[in-house]
Amino acid sequence: MINNIFRFGLIFILLILFQVLLFNNINFSGYVNPYVYILFILLLPVELPAWLVLILSFITGLVVDFFSTSLGMHTASTVMVGFIRPYVLQVISPRDGYEPGSEPSMFTYGARWFFIYTTIMVLAHHLVLFYVEVFRLTDFFRTLFRVLLSSLFSIAFIMLIEHFRKRK
Fold it and tell me: In terms of residue numbers, what domain contains 6?
């Protein structure tokens, strides 16, 4: 238990540092902004209570908002991701169900499963984040294009981090 708290605390700190110091500085013409800090929410254990996932999602978004001065946009999008996470896990659950004590990772359930899981969660996160940022529908397709490009880069970086995080 203490070991898991320490490990997830370290993952949280590293992902926030990567996001703030590296990925927040990646910006291609305002269309590509990768956000990899949501990997923390994706990697939380499956049997973690929904209320705790929501609290951890809120804290994650709040910390990123603090360093990005984005006035709650990341908090709103991460809380939404934390809210839909149990439903997404239920919809894409493996045939035999989830193993007790497991975390959703590429090495536990396979690369294809993790890619689908990551894609759903990142698209949901980016949809909320970018539409709350713009907060109007006049640039609907331009914002949708930003969502898709940023999601593509975020998914690529998350899959790359997950590949190097833990090998079999």
Answer: 2-165
